[in-house]
Amino acid sequence: MTRYFRSVAVAILLGLGATAAQAAAEACPALLNYTFPKLQDDTPQSLCQYRGKVVLVVNTASFCGFTGQYEGLEKMYAKYKEQGLVVVGFPSNDFGSQEPGSNKEIAEFCRLTYGVKFPMLAKSDVVGSGTNPLYKQLASITGEKPKWNFHKYLIDRSGQKVSSFPSTTAPDSKTFVNAVEKALAERP
C-alpha cells in the first residue's frame, strides 16, 4: 500500500507542478493587470481577459470632430477580432468637455449611432491628476499622453510593446492598419 500512496503522491505533485507552470505561463501581463467597470452596467471587467490578444486602447468622446472614428474602430474590430484583436474604448470628458453624458447615455449613443460592439469601459480621466492607472502606464511607456479624443495605444500580444497613435490617425489609415496587422502576425 505504501508504494501505491507514494505513486499517488508523486502523481499529485507532478500535476501540481504542471498546474503551477501553466498558471505562470498564463499570468496576466502587468500592463493588463487592471479592472475597470463596464460602461453599460458597471460590472467589473479585468483587462487580463485580453492576455494573448492585440489590444487597441482608445479614449473616446461622443461630441468630437473625431467621433466618426467609432465607425472605423468597429469595422476594424469586426474584421480582426477572430485573429485576436480587441478594441477597448474609454470614454473621457477630458478634452473640450465633449463627453458630458452618463455611462448609460454614452452606451446608448455608441450602440444606436455607431453599432459599437467592442468593449467599452466606464467614463474615466485619461490625463490630469485623476488619470486612470492604465493610461498613466501607457503614457509612461510611450512617452505620449493623449492630446485629444481618439488617441490610440496598440498593445502587442505579450502585453509588453506599446505603440501610440494620435487622434488624427484614422482607423483605416494605411499606417495604422499595417501596424495592427503586424501586431496580429507576431506571436509572443
Structure notes:
One of its GO terms (biological process) is cellular response to oxidative stress. Belongs to the glutathione peroxidase family. GO terms for molecular function: peroxidase activity. InterPro entries: Glutathione_peroxidase (IPR000889), GPX_AS (IPR029759), Thioredoxin-like_sf (IPR036249), Thioredoxin_domain (IPR013766). The chain is of the alpha+beta class. The chain has one domain: 3-Layer(aba) Sandwich (Glutaredoxin). It is built from 5 helices and 6 strands, in the order αβββαβααββα. The strands form 2 sheets. The protein has a 4-stranded mixed beta sheet, with helices on both faces. Strands 1-2 form a two-stranded antiparallel ribbon. The longest helix has 24 residues. It is globular.
Question: Secondary-structure blueprint of this entry?
Answer:
Layout: H1 2-25, E1 35-37, E2 44-46, E3 54-60, H2 69-80, E4 85-91, H3 103-114, H4 133-142, E5 152-155, E6 162-165, H5 174-185
Parallel strand pairs: 3-4
Antiparallel strand pairs: 1-2, 3-5, 5-6
TL;DR of this structure?
This protein is of the alpha+beta class and 188 residues long. The protein contains five helices and six strands; from the N terminus they run H-E-E-E-H-E-H-H-E-E-H.
